[in-house]
Amino acid sequence: MKTQYAEQRALRDVRRGVALLGVAEESLAGRRFSVEGVRVEALAFRDLALLIRPLRAADVAHAGEAAWMAHAGHVQRRLCDRLAVKAALLPAKTGTIFASSSELDAAARQSHGR
């Protein structure tokens, strides 16, 4: 499954979603962070940690809008600045949203071996 971005798909029918903020080394797995009131989790995935932000219906409804994307990008930059001193990480494209955690897991499985 190819990663789809907020601007590439209609998420109107999705009540919740998961934003992928980045991929980091395994040492961050299981940790939780807060960036300007936004909750971020580092989920273990094989030998990596997926930095994710659970989204609410209101977030999903506005995903892709300029103001939402600007705020999401700001939060992502702040998170990466904070975590870069603790672990190696690779930011995801701002607005990388999955309809569910199972969709994220499927995309991660497909991309991991590359």
Q: Number of DSSP helices? A: 3
Beta fraction: 25-35%
Average pLDDT for all residues: 84
Number of strands: 6
| C-alpha end-to-end distance | 14 Å
Structural class: alpha+beta
Radius of gyration: 13 Å
Question: Judging from the principal axes of the Cα atoms, what is the shape?
Answer: globular
Taking pLDDT < 50 over at least 5 consecutive residues as the criterion, the unreliable ranges are 4-14
Q: What percentage of residues falls in helices of 4 or more residues?
A: 25-40%
**Domain unit count:** 1
Order of helices and strands: EEEEHHEEH
* Major sheet summary line: 6 strands, antiparallel
Describe this structure in words.
The protein contains 3 helices and 6 strands. The model is unreliable at 4-14 (pLDDT under 50). With 114 residues, it is an alpha+beta fold. Strands 1, 2, 3, 4, 5 and 6 form a 6-stranded antiparallel sheet that branches. Strand 3 and strand 4 form a beta hairpin. The longest helix is centred in the middle third of the chain and has 18 residues, at 66-83. The chain is globular and about 35 Å long. The protein has one domain (6-112). Helix content is 32%, strand content 30%.
Topology:
Blueprint: E1 17-25, E2 32-35, E3 38-45, E4 48-55, H1 57-62, H2 66-83, E5 89-91, E6 97-98, H3 101-112
Antiparallel strand pairs: 1-4, 1-5, 1-6, 2-3, 3-4
